[in-house]
Every structure is written in C-alpha cells, then in structure tokens.
Predict the structure.
Amino acid sequence: MNKQTAVIIPARYGSSRLQGKPLIEVGGKPIIQWVFEKAVQANLADRVIIATDNQQILETSLMFGAEAEMTLESHHSGSDRIAEVVERHPEIGYIVNLQGDEPMIDPENIDKVIKMVKFDENADVSTLVTEIKDMKEVENPNLVKCVFDSNNFALYFSRSKIPYERNEGHAKFYGHIGIYGYKRDALFKMTKSNQTPLELTESLEQLRVLQMGMKIKVDFADNKPIGIDTIEDLNNFKNQVLSGVKI
C-alpha cells in the first residue's frame, strides 16, 4: 500500500501568552486558517489535518473546509498530539509537524521537509535551518542553533552559540526552523520514549531524537518565518496583512 504523506497541524487552545491563539482573527480569518491554507499549497502533501484539544477550534476548522480531529488535552507536546492522530490512520507513512502559529510558512519549505524524510532512507526525521548573520541572534538563547555534518545530518541543537569560536573566521551559524518531518516508525519511537537528559537540559525535543541514536536530516531555508508567540508578533502579522504584503 502506498503510504500517504500528511501535514498535521497541532492547535492547542491554551497558551500562556496568547490564549485561544488559533482562533484570533487577522484579515477576516483565524490564524489556524492562514496556516492551513499555506499547508494545502505543498505539492508533496496528500492531506492536511488539524489536531486540536478544543471543540471551538475543531468546529472552526471544519467550517473553513479543513480535515480536523479532536485529541486529548493531556499531551505535553505537539508531537504527542500528532502521534495520537497518526495511530488512527495506518495509511499515513510520512508526517509533517507544522506549528499552528506559523501563518507565514513557505509551502516550498514544507515540501523540502517531506522530500528529505520520504526519499532519504537514512533520515528518520527532517527539519530546516537558515543561516544567521546577526551575531546578537547567534547569542540569543531563544533562537535554537544547529550544527550538522558534511551529509547535512544534524550533530547537535543548542540554545547556546554553537560552534564555539576558539578560532574566528571559519564558522557559519545556522538557526533552527521548528518544522519537522517524520517517518511513521520514527514518530512513534520518539513519542513513546522517555525524555532524555540532553532534552531536559536544553528543553529541546529534537535532542531526544539525537540522543536515541536517530538521524535528523537538515535542508536550508532562505529565511526564518516569524511565528506568532507574543502580542508583538500578532501585531506585526496584522500590519503585514493590512498593508497588503503577500503572505
């Protein structure tokens, strides 16, 4: 049986900074609809599913024509929420975890993530990075950095500046973009395993994957899309929509 590729968008109602974030309307559409409409433009995705813990998000998603499913409220991460949905669908073999607060994601970047995990037999997981040239950003612990080998497999992710420049002038710095592709078995292997010491130390779920000996393939994006985490991010997105910037 040909395995389907599904983009799954975890959409949680609770948020410490923006309560009910997926339902906030911008330009006459809720944020979750903006994200969904970007996801369905990905050429390599067979379907897009919104996975939520909230009845209002479910009903809103169904109203604008999305496939949507309810999940447990008790999940600790988007990956766990996605795994619950995938378990119901044996036909899904490849999964993209697209955050529900990324209305400016480029559909071509979704396809890059799919291509790596679907066509590279050595890739358990895939993700994206972008080069950082602003040294303030390199030092910013909120921007996760990545180093990778000559075959573009991740060696490590960190909130610290990596690599450390003992000798300057040799390194490029890459910031991580939080979109993931998974082979089905890899998703279940990760979500059914306990958190690892590195993951707990840096609070980065992808370090569990690396510490378990699984392989994460990386590709490059031209820039980092701005996710909506704060009221400032929300106002920035609203201003872009109102000014007619192509989103």
Notes: The chain has one domain: 4-228. The chain has a mean pLDDT of 93. The longest helix spans residues 107-119. The radius of gyration is 18 Å.
